[in-house]
Amino acid sequence: MEDSVHELSITGENPPAKYIYTDSINPIQDPSIPLPLLEIPVIDFNRLTTPSVGTGAELERLRSALSSYGCVMVTNHGVEGSLMDRVRLVFKQFLALPMEQRLKCQKEVDGFEGFGSDMILTKDVSTAVRHFSARLRLTTWPEDKRQMKYWPEQPHDFREVLDDYSSKLLVLHDETLRAMARSLSLEEDDDDSTFLKAVREGGSISARFNFYPPCPAPDGALGLKPHSDGTVITYLLQDGEVEGLQVLKDEQWFRVPIVADALVLHVGDHLEIMSNGEFKSPVHRVVLNPERQRMSVVIASFPEEGRQIEPLEGLVSGERPRLYRQVKYSVVDQVDYYWSGTRVTDDARI
Ligand SMILES: O=C(O)CCC(=O)C(=O)O
Ligand SMILES: [Fe+2]
């Protein structure tokens, strides 16, 4: 098997050279100087969606947060804390299984789904610096796109828990995209003008279970290198105890705090384009902890393969000129952007 982060975590040695970032845009923090905490805006989802006196103000807070931070903490999102704990638990139990059990869900080298290291295009194999992490990726929606052979059978309730969690997140996802459209004064009932259409028509939603082993001497290794998400929208369930996510804001790295029972929402690159730059897709990375493993669970939505993505008509005007040209969504292009450290938003910018 290609680089097994499990073995690396067991030996406790310094990561080999292919995990070390030396690029000056990726300075690794000196652990003795903690980075500042991000004052990430907290959005009360209930207030966004339940018509009340405070809804307009909450929509404006959402719009303002997504245009400056590109990420928010969402509270009152309707997903019970106990279900979030179960999602974390089934992944921990999966990681604790004997290797041969985990290998039943192993990703193929050039595949997307299953457990293992991220896909790297052949041209980048010798040069790409690897992440010190492993992921289990599973498409959750639409249901007929689920590849059940990659869905763990152990622990016995893994599938049921993911099914439950992903269906709750689907509701949250759709409602969030509607609220985002309302926050920009887009016509809600005009299907052509909503963000939702881009995902609902042929798009997909998938889960990413991220695992970061402890790394006693990270020395330039990262759990995930700086990137923005090539998604429409990303929902992140953080580890309940171990911090690690950092966000770049105004050219400074900030730690994202752990807020019990909240979900972190990131604007994805394709939403940035569709919003004509009104919302920003934030650059973020994951640092390693010397003693403790960390995990996170992401639910993210993607446009349909081959779909043309462009700013919504309602967001282009004389005062707000079009900022992005049309770009065709392609998974392989996304992999290429990722490993070459570029972004679709840069490519699309006029
Ligand atoms: O583990 C995290 O906190 C972030 C994960 C992430 O950025 C990703 O999966 O794209
Ligand atoms: Fe990410």
TrEMBL record:
Keywords: Iron, Metal-binding, Oxidoreductase, Vitamin C. The keyword Membrane does not apply. InterPro entries: DIOX_N, IPNS-like_FE2OG_OXY, IPNS-like_sf, Oxoglu/Fe-dep_dioxygenase_dom, Plant_2OG-oxidoreductases. It comes from the Eukaryota. It holds the Pfam family DIOX_N. Residues 203-305 form the Fe2OG dioxygenase domain. One of its GO terms (molecular function) is L-ascorbic acid binding. The keyword Membrane does not apply. Belongs to the iron/ascorbate-dependent oxidoreductase family. This is Fe2OG dioxygenase domain-containing protein. It comes from Linum trigynum.
